[in-house]
Every structure is written in structure tokens, then in C-alpha cells.
Amino acid sequence: MPAGSIGIVAGPQYASSTSVDVVIRGIGGHGSAPQYGRDPVTLAAYYITQIQTIVSREEDPRDPSVVTVGSIHGGTKRNIIPDEVRLELTTRSFSDKSRQIIVDGLTQRAAGLTLAAQLPAEKAAVVTVLDNESTPVQYNDPALSAQVHDVLVKTLGEKRVPAVESVLASEDVGVLGMSPDLKRNEIPVAYLRLGAMDPDKFAAAEAAGKHLPGAHTSRFEPLPQPTIETGVTAMTAVATALLQ
Q1: Could you say which DSSP state residue 177 is in?
Q2: Which tens digit of pLDDT belongs to each residue from 140-149?
Q3: Which residue of 15, 153, 160, 201 pairs with 92 in a disulfide if CB–CB is 3.0 to 4.6 A?
């Protein structure tokens, strides 16, 4: 979003994020004689292609979700078949049902891979969900969000409060409003999205059908003055209105 603007989505605004580690194990050996082992590199490649069907064939297409393998490491040298390959995944979803379908799919395909490769039980693939690196759906209370939206429009003007959509990025601020077991929302939350990009560069990128580099890149170029000023003005107005 361009600097000087601010937005809010009522209901689910950001998806849940689940971090998953997968270890694909095999039987190492020499690259010239693969028949004497079980190549985990080949198995990992097969696994990566298979898990893409979780979203495309098992999820409800009306309930968005994502499975991404962001890291894969295995092997030490070109002519050595390693004993294992490690994958790091991130998954995103807007519902507990969708999230569970992904976790179950990852686990089932890992078990199927072990069976298909005729590996012994001690060489079974291992799927680990990292709860301490995962976060639930960031949910904005609809009533509070509507109230905040009205304050923003009154303070900044309608043009500076554009309509924004839910995205499959994630944000752990929603945890602050949830019950200790993270099963339900107990405290209303309204989380704002603050524009930070140079308006001219943003407009040029939109006209060209391109995206400017985002926050998770070394090429992110926020415009400090209007961004901070807008954020402070909006937060002050909202806090003052809510505390009256």
C-alpha cells in the first residue's frame, strides 16, 4: 500500500502459519551403485511434487491454503547417496479444518513414501509440526473493525482508507486476543495495515502490473515521514475514540 494510506479487514485478515520439518530418510551408498541403497534425494523430490496435490485436490477451493517447501538440504558430494534429506515447510490456511487437512496430508504422504521405498520402520520419514513457530489465524473482530474503520475515514478521509483484502501472510498479534489454549477469540482485536511505499513508485508499479519489494526483502523501500505520521495519527485517533 502507498504511504499515507491505512486499511483494515473485518474477520480473518491474515492466515494461520504452521511450520513443519520433514526428514526423508534412506539408505546411503555410492552414486555408481544406487541399487544397493535407497536414495533420499529422489524420494524427497517425489515427496515435494506429491504434497502439491494436498491443496489442489484435497482442500476446498473456496478455503484458500498454501504449502511451500522453503528449504531442502541433503548430501555432501556428487557421487555419494546420503542417508537423509531435510525439508523445511511453511503452510498457510484460514480455518482449522484446512490446516488439519494439510498436516494429515503431509504425514500420510511421508508414510506412503516409506512404504513405497520398502524402507524398514527405523528409516521411516519423520514429519514434525513446530508449534512454537506457528500462529493461528489473525482475526479482526467485525464490530470493532467497523468502528475503527469509521474513525479512520473521519480522521484521514475516505481516499486514504482504501478497501483491502485478506492475504495468506501471517501475523501473531491475534494471539493477544485469544484464550490461553488458542482455541477461541476472547478479546476483540482490530489490527491495522499501514501503507509504507512511495506513492509514485507504487502507482508506476501498479500501472506496469508489478509488485514493489515487500517487507521480507533487502530491497524494501518504505517512505519514513508520511508512513510514521499516518500511523501515529491513525493510532491516536482510534485510541482516543475507543477510550472515550
Answers
A1: G
A2: 999 999 999 9
A3: 15
